[in-house]
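Exercise 7b. C-alpha cells:
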C-alpha cells in the first residue's frame, strides 16, 4: 500500500498524476494547508483508494487544513475512504458526492459544505449535497454539515445502504428502498422533513432528530411503508401533531424514546417506555401495542393527549397522564382502547367509572381499564376490523410494478440489470419521439438462480414494467404465459413441435416464461423430444424476434450446461439475470415482512433475528425464501396452539417462547429422555484422557459461539472434520458414536445421525460409478457424522484405483458442505500417516487429530471388570488382574479393548462349561478354578 503526497511544490505529486499512477488500496494524502480545486468542477474515482487530509485539534476545536472543492463521482464498485477533509462545492446545481455502481464510501472526520445555495421553495432544479444510488454503501463517522436555514440541503439515497455514526448533520435525509442505520448522531433540518424514509429499513439509536415545518405541515420524520426501529432517541417538533408520522403499512418498534408527537396511519407499532410530550394519534386501521408505561405529558394546550380513531386499536399496560383536560382521550370510528392501568399525576384509577379523567367515546367504539388477559371482549370485534378487504396492507395493490420490484428484499444485481433494460427502453422511446430509428433491443432473457430466489415473481414484474413502458409487442393486453417441460413436450412422435408452436402463439405479443428450462435438454435420451421443442423455439425467436419475450429460468449449474449444449439459444438470449442466494440478514428481513403483512407483532425482533439467522446459516436446506416461509408457517402453528390452549386474547404477538418451541431450544440436554448424557458417557469411558481433553476443546468452542450468538455478536465457525488415529480396539468407533450424540446434544450438528462406512460402501467396480456411490453416502450423512473406518484403504497406491475417485468426491463435498457435515477418517496410525502423505488436499481440510493410545494393563483390567459387573458376574479382582496381566504380556495380539472382550468371552465359556458339568446353582460367580484354567 503506497502513499502519495499531493500538493503544488516540487517534492509533491500532482493529484491527477498520482491518481493514475496509484494502485488499488493506495493512499493519496494532501499536504498540510493544500486545497485541491478539481478541474472542470468534478473528478471520477473508479478504483479503491484513500483520500486523506489533516485536522489540527486546538482549544477543543478541529481545524481542517485541507479542502477538496468540486464534485467527487465514485463509481464502478470502488471502495473509497475519505478522512480528515473539508469537501466543498460552490455550484448549487451539482452534488458534492455522487456515489453509484455498487460503490462503498467511508467518511471519517469530514465537513460537507455547499456555499452557493437555493431556497427550499425555489423553482430551480435542486441537487442534494450527497447522492447515493445503485446498491452503493455510505458510512459517516464524525461527519458534520452546517445549518443553512431555509436553503436546500439534502442527503438522498436510493437502493443503497447508509450508516451514520457520531455525526452532526444539518441536512434533510431522504431514503428510498434503502437500509439505514443512525447511531449517536444529531440530525437537524427545519422547513422540511429532517428524515423522509420510503420503502426502507431504518434503525435509529441514541440520537436526536429535530426539524420539520409546522406551517407547511412537514413532519420532522416522515415514514412511508418503512420499518423503523428506534431506541433511546429524542424526536423534536413542537406544536405539531405529527412529529413522528407513520403512513402506509409502516412498522415502528420504539424503546425508551421521547417524542414531541406521534401520528400512526395504516401502520403498526410495538412500543416500550415511550414519552410523548404533546399528542399521540393512531388512525386508519392501525394497531399499537405499548408493553409498559405510556407517558403522555400533555404539553400542548390546544391538543388532547390521546386520539384513537378510524378502526384502530391501542393496547397498553398503563396510560400515565399529567394534566386534566377535556377530553384527555378521544376514541371514535369503531376503535378500541385497552389499558390495565390509568393514572394522572401519579394517582391510579383501576376502572373508568370512578376516574376523573375525561374520555370521549363514540357509540361504535370500545375501551376498558382493567386486566386485559381476562377480558371477554369479542375477539372478532378486536381483530377482524383490521383484517377485511381494505386492510392495512391494501396499498400493495396500489404500488406500481417498478415499486413492487424495488420493494423485494435483496436481488440488487437483478434490479440493476432490470434498470439497464428499462433505460434502454426509455432511450428507444425518446429516439422514436424525435424521429430516429430505435436501437435493436432483444428482450429474451435467462434467469439463473437456486430455489426460492424469486425468479417467477421477478419475471411477472418485469413483464408488467415493460408493458407499462409499452415495450412489449401487444400494447393493449398484458400476456404472461408460464410453462414447464410438460407444456412443451408431447410423448407422441411429431407432436412436440406442434404443441410448442401453439404455446408460443398463445404468448405472442407478451412473455413466455419457461421454468426449469434445462429439463428440455434430453441429450442422453434415445428419443430427444426436448431438442424438437428447442428447435421450434429457436425458429420462432428468429421469425418473431420483436413480437415475443421468452424467459428461460432454472438452477444456475443446470442452466449453464443447458446453454452450453445449445449455442443457437445462447446467441439469441441477450440478457442474463443472476439471482444470488439471500444472505441470512435478508432471510430475516423477508420473514419479518411476511409476518408484518399478516398483521403479527414480534415481541422481540432481536431474538427473532438472532435465532433465524443462526438457524438459516446452519441449515442444510438453504432454499432461500422458501425456507423462511416454511419457518414462519411452523411459528404460526405453534402460536395458534398456544393461543387456543391458554385462551389468550392476544392474537397478534409472537413471543420468544414460540420461537424456542419451533427451534426446540433446550432439547439438547437429553434429546430422547432415555439415553445417558453423551458427555457423561464419554467421561465414564476408561482411559483415552487425551481424546477427552480434545473433545472438551470442541465443546468449549461451541459454548463460546453460543454465548456470542446470544449476545448478538458474530461467530466463527470451526471445522469439525477429524482424524481418529490408533491401533485396533482403542475405542475409535465408540468415541465417534458418542461424539455424534454429544455434538447433537450441544446443538453443534443438526441431526442425531451417525453413518458408518468402509471402502466397500464407497467404491464401485465400474468407471464412473464410484463418484455416484460416494456422493449418495455423503448426502445421506448431511446434518450428522460420516465415520469412514480404515480410511487408508481408499488409497491403494494405484492411479487406476477407484478409491482415488471416492477421495476426490469426498474432498469436493467437504468444500461444498463444510458446515453441514462432520467427516471422521479413522484408521491405524502408521497406515493413516501414509494415506495422508498421498492426499495433501485431504490433510489440509482435516485439522483435528485425535490420538487413541494403547490401553495399559490397569485400564484393560478396569474395562474387563466393568464389562463383567454390567452382567452381575462376581470375580476375585486381584486374581483377575494377575491373570489378565500375565496373558496380555504373553500375547502377540495387543488389540486393546478387543483383546479384553475376547478374554472375558472365553472366561465366561469356561465358567459355563463348569456349571454345565457340575450342575451348580450359582451362575454369577467366576471361580479361582475358572481363572486358573484360562491362565496361559
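Sequence design result:
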Amino acid at each position: 500500500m503506497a502513499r502519495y503526497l499531493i500538493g503544488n511544490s516540487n517534492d509533491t505529486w500532482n493529484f491527477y498524476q498520482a491518481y493514475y499512477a496509484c494502485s488499488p488500496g493506495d493512499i493519496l494524502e494532501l499536504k498540510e494547508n493544500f486545497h485541491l480545486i478539481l478541474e472542470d468542477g468534478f473528478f471520477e474515482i473508479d478504483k479503491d483508494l484513500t483520500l486523506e487530509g489533516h485536522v489540527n485539534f486546538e482549544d477543543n476545536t478541529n481545524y481542517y487544513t485541507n479542502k477538496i472543492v468540486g464534485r467527487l463521482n465514485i463509481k464502478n464498485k470502488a471502495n473509497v475512504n475519505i478522512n480528515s477533509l473539508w469537501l466543498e462545492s460552490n455550484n448549487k446545481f451539482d452534488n458534492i458526492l455522487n456515489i453509484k455502481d455498487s460503490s462503498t464510501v467511508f467518511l471519517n472526520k469530514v465537513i460537507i459544505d455547499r456555499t452557493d445555495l437555493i431556497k427550499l421553495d425555489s423553482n430551480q432544479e435542486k441537487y442534494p449535497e450527497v447522492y447515493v444510488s445503485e446498491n452503493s454503501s455510505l458510512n459517516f463517522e464524525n461527519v458534520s454539515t452546517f445549518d443553512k436555514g431555509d436553503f436546500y440541503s439534502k442527503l438522498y439515497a436510493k437502493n443503497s445502504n447508509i450508516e451514520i455514526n457520531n455525526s452532526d448533520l444539518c441536512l434533510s435525509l431522504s431514503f428510498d428502498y434503502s437500509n439505514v442505520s443512525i447511531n449517536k448522531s444529531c440530525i437537524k433540518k427545519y422547513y422540511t422533513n429532517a428524515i423522509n424514509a420510503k420503502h426502507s429499513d431504518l434503525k435509529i439509536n441514541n440520537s436526536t432528530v429535530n426539524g420539520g415545518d409546522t406551517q407547511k405541515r412537514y413532519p420532522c420524520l416522515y415514514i412511508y411503508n418503512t420499518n423503523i426501529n428506534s431506541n433511546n432517541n429524542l424526536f423534536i417538533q413542537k406544536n405539531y401533531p405529527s412529529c413522528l408520522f407513520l403512513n402506509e403499512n409502516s412498522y415502528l418498534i420504539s424503546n425508551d424514546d421521547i417524542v414531541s408527537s406521534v401520528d400512526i396511519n395504516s401502520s403498526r407499532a410495538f412500543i416500550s417506555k415511550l414519552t410523548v410530550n404533546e399528542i399521540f394519534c393512531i388512525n386508519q386501521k392501525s394497531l399499537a401495542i405499548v408493553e409498559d408505561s405510556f407517558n403522555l405529558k400533555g404539553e400542548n394546550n390546544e391538543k388532547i393527549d390521546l386520539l384513537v380513531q378510524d378502526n384502530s386499536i391501542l393496547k397498553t399496560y398503563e396510560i400515565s397522564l399529567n394534566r386534566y383536560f377535556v377530553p384527555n382521550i378521544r376514541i371514535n370510528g369503531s376503535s378500541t382502547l385497552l389499558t390495565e392501568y390509568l393514572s394522572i399525576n401519579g394517582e391510579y384509577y383501576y376502572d373508568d367509572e370512578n376516574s376523573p379523567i375525561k374520555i370521549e367515546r363514540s357509540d361504535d367504539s370500545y375501551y376498558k381499564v382493567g386486566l386485559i388477559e381476562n377480558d371477554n371482549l369479542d375477539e372478532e370485534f378486536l381483530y377482524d376490523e383490521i383484517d377485511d378487504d381494505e386492510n392495512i396492507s391494501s396499498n400493495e395493490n396500489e404500488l406500481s410494478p417498478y415499486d413492487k420490484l424495488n420493494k423485494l428484499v435483496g436481488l440488487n444485481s437483478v434490479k440493476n440489470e432490470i434498470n439497464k433494460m428499462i433505460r434502454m427502453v426509455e432511450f428507444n422511446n425518446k429516439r422514436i419521439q424525435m424521429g430516429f430509428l430505435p436501437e435493436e433491443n432483444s428482450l429474451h432473457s435467462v434467469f439463473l438462480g437456486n430455489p426460492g430466489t424469486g425468479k417467477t415473481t421477478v419475471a411477472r414484474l418485469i413483464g408488467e414494467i415493460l408493458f407499462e413502458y409499452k415495450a412489449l409487442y401487444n400494447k393493449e393486453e398484458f400476456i404472461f404465459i408460464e410453462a414447464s417441460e410438460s407444456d412443451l413436450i408431447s410423448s407422441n412422435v411429431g407432436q412436440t413441435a406442434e404443441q410448442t408452436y401453439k404455446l408460443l402463439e398463445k404468448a405472442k405479443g407478451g412473455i413466455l416464461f419457461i421454468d426449469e428450462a434445462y429439463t428440455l435438454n434430453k441429450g442422453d435420451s434415445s428419443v430427444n423430444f426436448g431438442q424438437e421443442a428447442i428447435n421450434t423455439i429457436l425458429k420462432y425467436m428468429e421469425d418473431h424476434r420483436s413480437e415475443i419475450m421468452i424467459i428461460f429460468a432454472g438452477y444456475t449449474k443446470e442452466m449453464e450446461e443447458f446453454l452450453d449444449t445449445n449455442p443457437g439459444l445462447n446467441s439469441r438470449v441477450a440478457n442474463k439475470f443472476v439471482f444470488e442466494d439471500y444472505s441470512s440478514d435478508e432471510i430475516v428481513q423477508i420473514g419479518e415482512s411476511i409476518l408484518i403483512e399478516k398483521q403479527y407483532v414480534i415481541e422481540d425482533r432481536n431474538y427473532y433475528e438472532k435465532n433465524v439467522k443462526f438457524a438459516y446459516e446452519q441449515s442444510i436446506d438453504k432454499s432461500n425464501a422458501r425456507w423462511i416461509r416454511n419457518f414462519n408457517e411452523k411459528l404460526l402453528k405453534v402460536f395458534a396452539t398456544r393461543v387456543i390452549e391458554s385462551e389468550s386474547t392476544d392474537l397478534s404477538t409472537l413471543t420468544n417462547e414460540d420461537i424456542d418451541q419451533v427451534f426446540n431450544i433446550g432439547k439438547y440436554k437429553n434429546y430422547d429422555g432415555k439415553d445417558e448424557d453423551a458427555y457423561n458417557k464419554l467421561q465414564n469411558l476408561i482411559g483415552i484422557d487425551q481424546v477427552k481433553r480434545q473433545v472438551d476443546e470442541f465443546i468449549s468452542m461451541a459454548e463460546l459461539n453460543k454465548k456470542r450468538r446470544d449476545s448478538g455478536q458474530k461467530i466463527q465457525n470451526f471445522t469439525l472434520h477429524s482424524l481418529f488415529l490408533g491401533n485396533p480396539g482403542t475405542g475409535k468407533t465408540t468415541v465417534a458414536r458418542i461424539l455424534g450424540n454429544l455434538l447433537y446434544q450441544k446443538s453443534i450438528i443438526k441431526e442425531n445421525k451417525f453413518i458408518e462406512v468402509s471402502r466397500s460402501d464407497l467404491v464401485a467396480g465400474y468407471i464412473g460409478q464410484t463418484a455416484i456411490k460416494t456422493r449418495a453416502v455423503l448426502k445421506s450423512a448431511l446434518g450428522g457424522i460420516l465415520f469412514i473406518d480404515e480410511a487408508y484403504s481408499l488409497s491403494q497406491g494405484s492411479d487406476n484405483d477407484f478409491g482415488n475417485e471416492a477421495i476426490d468426491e469426498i474432498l469436493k463435498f467437504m468444500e461444498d458442505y463444510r458446515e453441514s457435515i462432520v467427516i471422521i477418517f479413522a484408521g491405524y496410525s502408521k497406515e493413516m500417516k501414509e494415506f495422508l502423505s498421498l492426499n495433501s488436499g485431504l490433510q489440509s481440510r482435516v485439522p483435528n487429530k485425535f490420538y487413541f493410545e494403547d490401553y495399559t494393563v490397569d485400564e484393560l483390567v478396569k474395562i474387563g471388570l466393568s464389562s463383567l459387573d454390567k452382567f452381575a458376574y462376581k470375580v476375585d479382582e486381584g486374581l483377575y488382574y494377575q491373570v489378565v496381566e500375565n496373558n496380555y504380556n504373553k500375547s502377540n495380539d495387543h488389540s486393546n479393548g478387543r483383546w479384553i472382550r475376547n478374554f472375558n468371552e472365553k472366561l465366561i465359556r469356561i465358567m459355563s462349561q463348569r456349571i454345565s458339568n457340575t450342575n451348580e446353582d450359582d451362575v454369577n460367580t467366576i471361580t479361582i478354578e475358572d481363572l486358573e484354567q484360562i491362565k496361559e
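Instructor comment: The longest helix spans residues 412-433. The chain has six domains: 1-192, 211-408, 411-579, 584-665, 678-852, 857-934.
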